[in-house]
Amino acid sequence: MEEDKHLYRFDAPDTSIEAAENLDASRLERMVLEAVQNLNSGCISDDVRKYCEAKYGVKSYSSITARFCSLERKGFIKYTGEKRLGASGRNQRVMIVNKNEGLQSNG
Questions:
Q1: Which domain holds residue 61?
Q2: Residue 6 forms part of a structural domain
Q3: Residue 10 and residue 34: Cα distance in Å, rounded?
Q4: How far apart are CA 80 and CA 89, in angstroms?
Q5: Is 76 inside any structural domain?
Q6: Which CATH number belongs to the domain containing residue 81 in this structure?
Q7: In whole angstroms, what is the distance from residue 82 CA to residue 35 CA?
Q8: d(Cα 6, Cα 18) in Å, to the nearest integer?
Q9: pLDDT tens digits, residue range 15-60?
Q10: Cβ atoms of 81 and 42 closer than 8 Å
Q11: 31 lies in a domain?
Q12: Buried b (16+ CB within 10 A) or exposed e, 3-31
């Protein structure tokens, strides 16, 4: 039996639950994957967030960063092992599109 997955905490307020249930995660995944593809020299979270804000108007930090894990798990992106300094002054992992998957598989 597959585990029931929720996009909200068990104790989340009703407004958060409603927002999570109306979230189009696959749309956000496509946007993030497109950003990683177009930032083809490898990119960090800051780069992807700037791209998605400029192109799609998505300003929510968590809407973007939450997609990295699922895209990696599905094999669409991978981390290079390199790190770059982000705007916060902390290092962020560099990611690239997994050439074996890429946009063509995300349909």
A1: 14-106
A2: no
A3: 32
A4: 20
A5: yes
A6: 1.10.10.10
A7: 18
A8: 11
A9: 544 444 444 568 889 999 999 999 988 999 999 999 999 999 999 8
A10: no
A11: yes
A12: eeeeeeeeeeeeeeeeeeeeeeeeebbbb
